[in-house]
Specification:
This protein is an all-alpha fold and 117 residues long. Helix 2 runs antiparallel to helix 3, helix 3 packs antiparallel against helix 4 and helix 3 runs parallel beside helix 5. It is globular, with a radius of gyration of 14 Å.
Length: 117
């Protein structure tokens, strides 16, 4: 229920209201499926995007570090899932004005994507 409510609110453009049900859904999914499950990680990606859109960049970076570690452990460092997170990390670092960090993450994402596509 929390997942569908959160997704509905995000689609409606209400990130502030979507955050709480999304956090609740993440907790449920971690308990039910574990922190490395694809569904749990996708919900975390959604939360990171909310942090980015609402300019809560420090929180986004903290969560990105945990999500990137989990995706590398679950799927491997050269997986598309890891590349997606590097790309998102790059976007957050650009928003922070940290161009060197952004370039590193975006280049890593591009390298992985080229390997897969």
């Amino acid at each position: 229920r929390s997942v569908s409510l959160a997704h509905s609110l995000v689609k409606a453009g209400d990130d502030v209201k979507a955050e709480q049900p999304l956090c609740e859904a993440i907790q449920v999914f971690v308990g039910e499926y574990g922190p490395h499950d694809r569904r749990t990680l996708e919900l975390n990606d959604d939360l990171i995007k909310i942090f980015l859109r609402t300019r809560r960049l420090t929180e986004a970076v903290q969560l990105l570090k945990r999500v990137l570690t989990a995706k590398v452990e679950a799927f491997g460092s050269n997986s598309v899932q890891a590349a997606d997170t590097h790309q998102l990390f790059g976007e957050v670092r650009l928003a922070q004005g940290k161009l060197n960090h952004a370039t590193k993450h975006l280049q890593t994402a591009l390298t992985i994507y080229r390997h897969h596509y």
